[in-house]
UniProtKB/TrEMBL annotation:
Transmembrane segments: none annotated. Belongs to the metallo-dependent hydrolases superfamily. Uronate isomerase family. It catalyses: D-glucuronate = D-fructuronate; aldehydo-D-galacturonate = keto-D-tagaturonate. This is Uronate isomerase. It comes from Geobacter benzoatilyticus.
Length: 473
């Protein structure tokens, strides 16, 4: 990765002025993991630990590395003990994006400017908890005050979406909340018991008995259309890599039939075929319905068997994966493009070695009249830091059209994660101010303010087509 240069005083001054001119633009957070039920109930947070640390595997990972006990992360430690452990950890995280995020989160949410340390922890704990007990710090108020206009959650097809239905009907919500359709469980035929448990949930919420591949796809389609009625316009997929092995409808039917018979002989080759077939079906649905497909590629998940066995998914034991990406990604996109079934697509890469490759693959597929039909998505997960953001923007500038970029998503793990939008926006304005001073673009040819507005907000609003609160989508 490129080591960042020291910015001149004029670059810093110009970058800050550029950021502040557009800081009030709304946030369209099109990928995150906030629980919609908490927004629907709008219940008070018990304390700062519940708001800030519970469920945030970014923090758990850091706490473990710093030597803190596991019960302070995923166990039964008290909220104050958990918070104190985080205060000890953050002081060891020099130059970490998490220090910057936490500083933004405390300042923007509570007006607290003191850095979190073991010595300041007690005061910050008491001050923040007192504010959390008031009506101004309910979940919806936190997001509205942060400038959120649209928020997307990540939802399984077998989720009932009751919270989303309540939010859609509640005229008191000042922003839109939409589900995203994440059918990853349909790819896991190799885990027969887990698949059958999920299938039962799917049958219950769709009202369709899954007795064959056609009835399985019918049940999924029922859920897909229900998601659509609640404003969903995005399918989301967490894959190690794309799948593009040819698989006919007859072959997919045979593979699925063996699964229904509780066969245990679905090997790697058949699993590859099934995943290729299934992903193409969802992509074609998206094309027909005008949805966007988000492909989160390359993460290696659940590395620690002990933690996975005791806690489960999303425990903070994941890493960048070493999967080959280019060949199958191109094959998948090309199959869809050749058949004129390629939906709008956002590609997220996990491994920094793939950043430039993803940017150039995205630029190989387009749609007339659509600005950036296939997007190189924002720097994600381990790349959501200054070096990763810089490399991502450099790739966009060098091989694509930066002005079509759809902008940042928080991948939120807490109700304060919108701070990552501010972090990204400031990193972006630093790059633009530096490039302008270096003469890399002509201000008479590129309107830097218009470019900022597009990258902060306008491109995302146009790409997804979502309106403000209770507007038509």
């Amino acid at each position: 990765m490129t080591i960042r240069r020291n910015f001149t005083a004029s670059v810093r001054e110009n970058a800050l002025a550029l950021y502040e001119r557009h800081a009030s633009l709304p946030i369209i957070d099109y990928h995150g993991h906030l629980p919609p039920a908490r927004l629907a109930s709008n219940a008070h947070f018990r304390d700062l630990s519940e708001l800030w640390i519970e469920g945030d595997h970014y923090k758990w990972r850091a706490m473990r590395i710093a030597g803190e006990r596991e019960d302070l992360c995923t166990g039964s430690a008290s909220p104050k003990e958990r918070f104190d452990a985080w205060a000890r950890t953050i002081t060891r995280m020099a130059s970490s994006p998490m220090q910057a995020w936490c500083q933004i989160e405390l300042k923007r949410t509570f007006g607290i400017t003191a850095p979190l340390t073991p010595s300041s922890a007690e005061c910050i704990w008491e001050e923040a908890n007192a504010m959390l007990a008031t009506e101004d710090f309910l979940p919806r108020k936190l997001l509205a005050r942060a400038g959120v206009e649209v928020l997307c959650t990540t939802d399984d097809p077998a989720d009932q979406l009751e919270a989303h239905r309540q939010l859609a009907e509640d005229q008191g919500v000042s922003f839109r909340v939409f589900p995203t359709f994440r059918p990853d469980s349909a790819l896991c035929l190799h885990s027969s018991q887990n698949f059958h448990d999920w299938r039962s949930r799917l049958e219950a919420c769709s009202g369709i008995a899954v007795e064959s591949l056609p009835t399985f796809m019918e049940a999924l389609r029922v859920r897909y259309e229900f998601f659509h009625k609640l404003g969903c316009r995005v399918s989301d997929h967490g894959l190690d890599r794309c799948y593009a092995t040819p698989c006919s409808d007859a072959e997919a039917t045979t593979i699925f039939s063996r699964l229904l018979l509780n066969s245990s002989d679905i090997g790697a080759a058949d699993l590859e075929k099934w995943r290729s077939w299934f992903m193409r079906q969802i992509a074609e649905w998206n094309h027909e319905s005008g949805w966007t497909m988000m492909l989160h590629l390359g993460a290696r998940r659940n590395n620690n068997t002990r933690i996975f066995s005791s806690y489960g998914l999303d425990a903070g034991c994941d890493s960048i994966g070493d999967f080959p990406q280019g060949e199958t990604l191109v094959a998948f996109l090309d199959q869809l493009d050749t058949s004129e079934r390629l939906p709008k697509t956002i590609l997220f890469n996990s491994n920094p070695r793939d950043t430039l490759m993803f940017a150039t693959i995205a630029g190989s597929f387009w749609g007339e009249g659509i600005r950036g039909k296939v997007q190189h998505g924002p720097p994600w997960w381990f790349l959501d830091q200054l070096y990763g953001i810089e490399e991502h923007l450099n790739a966009q500038c060098a091989t694509g059209v930066l002005g079509t970029f759809v902008g940042m998503a928080s991948d939120s793990r807490s109700f304060l994660s919108t701070a990552r939008h501010e972090y990204f926006r400031k990193a972006l304005t630093l790059k633009l101010a530096e490039d302008l001073e270096s003469g890399l673009f002509n201000p008479d040819q590129v309107d830097i303010d218009e470019l900022c507005r597009d990258l902060f907000y306008v491109n995302a609003q146009s790409f997804f087509g979502w309106k403000g609160a209770h507007g038509n989508s």
